[in-house]
Amino acid sequence: MSTFSNSMSPPQRRAHATSRASNVGLACSLCRSRKVRCDGKLPACQRCVKDGQDCEYATERARRPLKDQIQNLRQRVADLESQLDASRRSSISVDPQGVREEPDESRPIIMATGSMSLNAEGNLVHAGSSSTFFWFMKKRAMENLPQAHPPTLSYLFPPHLPVTLSPSMHDRLINLAFQSQLEFGRIVDQTLFRADLEENHNSRTPSYSRFLHLIILGHGCRYIDDLQPSLSIDGTYENRGDIFISAAKALVAAEMEAPCLSSIPAFALLAIYVGNMRQDHLAFTYQGIAVVMAEEFLLDQRVSDHVVTMSDSDRRLERYRQMTYWVLSVVSSWHFCVFGRVHHWPGPVQHIEIPFKGSSLQVDPISLVDLAFKYHCRLSKIAGRIVSQIYNRADDRRQYLVKLDQELVTWCAALPQQLKPDGFASNPVPHVVAHWAFICVHTIILHRPFFISLGDHASSDLSMDRCVTAASDILWLMRLSAVYGEARNCSAFYYAIFCAASVWILLAAGVDRRGSDQEQQARSNTGLANTKDTISFLNRAGKVWPSAIDSANSLRELLIEYTGITM
């Protein structure tokens, strides 16, 4: 008789049932569960004569459940149903393709029996959480899913990155990139970049994109000081960030197809990375892409006069536009590229602030940088001939460039009026001087010295020699411009002189440690003498171009900081 029927029996039979409850049968537990007839005798060997298994005996007769136990079970069932109902909105249903992103709201989570149906996408969906088949499908689908990560940290793992990075390593690479390069000139705003990385890493904003993220990590790898096998860092400065740069290069076509404001500094940074690997033509290409994008976004057109009538969102966008164009036209090209690794150089200098202070930063953004980039991108034939002369002797280059006077004049005349550099006269010589100065500056940028040795002395020596050669050419052009005063009226020409002077200051500081002590001292003396000549020239030029005085003062500060010498 069942327990339920016993509980409903009349009182006179209840006493009989209670008396029997104290009697425990001699059949073992296995026999009792199988309802097998048993002789009721306790075997001495404690082994069942029918099955040959060890006997286990109940110590007391099974009792019926009490009312409070039944109430407790009912409450637990109600709690479970409420939990299932609450989880129905946040849980995921499973189809043969894997876990779906959204639950099927049209079907209840609990059904008497499981059922199969097709959803709106045509996938087979099983409904009915109590079905064994449902849980089997869910288990298989979860096994096939990649390892789940917290949504806020998904940018640390593939497919967002080519390799998995720990949060500490990720922060370290970004900090190295900004401390060693990106903070010079603020080509990327670190605060805005990090905020969008945390909140919008699956989107593209004016200050963040996955493309830019990969390139920044690639720059950060260059400055890491210990080997990281997982990042393929083997001690070579040039290729240290290739694992991230290769992933970024795979996104170039998509970024060009649908660019955003963050694409412009990203391509400028990519040009700097490959330029430091002495891939000149590829660097020209990436920088040219950035310039073309700037034109597409009309960044070369000032709309500041209309900012007053803009909404707040439009004003923020305009600030993004102006900052991006400033970075592209001046900062990313000349400023931090040369000084990006100053505080990593061996010697007494441990840290350096941004060397461009005061009004020396207040240059017209429509400058020679724009013209020269357009020159290399749009007039590839002329650019190719000029760039090919970089590797020739200085005298040969001068003779060759004179032959291009008429082509340069024709090209400048064809440019829109607002893109012409200030002060260019009809005389073709200033054109040659300005464009030649730009080529020399670009040589310094793309082949900046590896003043810290990472085991590749040949690359360091080659980079140093090429930068010194370019600085020597700018020094020659500076003296030539004393005859042709028109060239001195070009504001960008003074930045070329400033860039060359930075090389002379580094020489004066003794960063070139090749050869004997006498040879090192001779190079240091040459650097100091050329620095003094440059500062004197800028002081004289300040009579016709006041910003030249600011450049001279900045050079004095750098000279004191590196050498302790005052002028």
UniProtKB/TrEMBL annotation:
The chain crosses the membrane at residues 492-511. Residues 27-57 form the Zn(2)-C6 fungal-type domain. Residues 81-104 are annotated as: Disordered. Gene3D superfamilies: Zn(2)-C6 fungal-type DNA-binding domain (4.10.240.10). Keywords: DNA-binding, Membrane, Metal-binding, Nucleus, Transcription, Transcription regulation, Transmembrane, Transmembrane helix, Zinc. GO terms for cellular component: nucleus. Pfam families: Fungal_trans, Zn_clus. InterPro entries: Transcr_Regulatory_Elem, XnlR_reg_dom, Zn2-C6_fun-type_DNA-bd_sf, Zn2Cys6_DnaBD. GO terms for molecular function: DNA binding; DNA-binding transcription factor activity, RNA polymerase II-specific; zinc ion binding. SMART domains: GAL4. It is found in: Nucleus. This is Zn(2)-C6 fungal-type domain-containing protein. It comes from Cryptococcus amylolentus CBS 6039.
